[in-house]
Fold each of these.
Amino acid sequence: MAGKKELFQKEGRKIWSYRFTHPRTGKQVRGSTGKTEKSEAQQVLDQIKADIWLTVTPDTDKPIRLWGEAAIRWLEETEKRSIRTDASRLSILNEVMLETPITDINGDYIREDVIKGLLEKRNIKPATINRYVMLIQSILNKAYKVWRWIDTVPYLPRPGKSKEGKRKAWVTPDQWKRIHAELSEHYGDVALLALATGLRYSNVAKLEWRWIDSVNNCIIIPKEVFKGKRDHALPINETARRVLSKYYGKHPTRVFVYKGRPFDRLNQRYWHAAVDKAGVNDELRAAGLLEFNERFVFHGLRHSFATWLVRTGISVDVVEELGGWAPDSSRMVFTYAHAAGVSRLLPYSRRMDEILEGTNKEFSTVLAPVTWSFLAPSELSL
């Protein structure tokens, strides 16, 4: 039987936690039983201790790694611009996760201890909670793939849709022209190709020449880099063709280069400065497309692509295919095996040429909020 110190409840919590000394390593084992009844929690604890004796040998036993160790190593090894944000979020997560063994972090633990027990009590919005969970998932992925601290990676739950996720800001052709005028030639070409094709920023900025099928006049984004984890092909309209032709021959593998080097990152400050200078954010807020503290992000060009096409009368099903939003991969006809089928969508893709040239008479420039059933909240992220 476990002693009183082995099974306990944290202050203000109903769920029973456990801690005991590992019989072979001498280190403390900590975690949550996920149970509110003490008798059930005791059964969980007894089973955990029995599993250790039955399955762990001195030769194969791995040292128990705590979440705090993983968090520190993540901050030390990760190089990205948002590392300060990660550090801030980890300091909050450490309030409950600091001494938790990473092998005990699973869906139930995240749902009960982290989301309900910590983040929701702080009145953190669902969309931001998603980012906390994604950070935890990223650290666990690295603990599995790189550090080899764990043998499996659990799938962690998300709190669900946020109200902000339903808002899809888009710009009119006139607003786009004003934004484009504030951008440098190079950055403007990246943005124009994103708008003309509906591709995500990462797929446009890191576009490779080998993904361009000149025979079938299409761009094929391989599943390894496409968010939907499937090959995605789209026809090359005239606007996209003009942009691509400007960069042909400048680099052996990548389309967009800056000062001879491949172009990768989005300079968000530069982008927001251009949108602000164009006066677009205030107009979108007045139209109800943005909240008072929101700004039009680069990904909004993808929403503009969808909105413009639907407003010219193209069906949502066709726009789904063009943008790669199809909910069922079996509906996608875009693979390397039959890329020639993309040509049937070219007339629809050319509507973007008409809108940008101002020759499409069916398009309405009246700003209004829109909600697309095929655009998930996660699409808002860059």
Amino acid sequence: MLVLTIRSDKPEAEIGLFLNDKSLVYEKWNADRQLSVTIHLKIDQLLKDQGKDLKDLGGIVCFKGPGSFTGLRIGLSAGNALAYGLDIPITASAGENWIEVGLSKLLAGKNEKVALPEYGSPPHITLPKH
């Protein structure tokens, strides 16, 4: 199974391609405030460089946090949208070994359907003014 990994909790974003649990390619780039613009371009280029395209993906693993509120939302939204649109499974993990944990869940047949973030604390949301 070809698996895309996404980590977007900090200014340096990370994506990778794995064949089952074997790393094929892994890329980091300084996405900072351009993550929403660059993430899809980077995923597309990563796949093209391996002679693959989106239809070749069999699953997605995302880093779920804790981390940047906006960064996590962008990465998880991209992962969730791809999983939904391609009708493939998605899992999310945390910690230093998030990729290994996520891959093992995915390869065991787990599908979270929607990967949810863990921000590390409640988000600070402004209450509406009356």
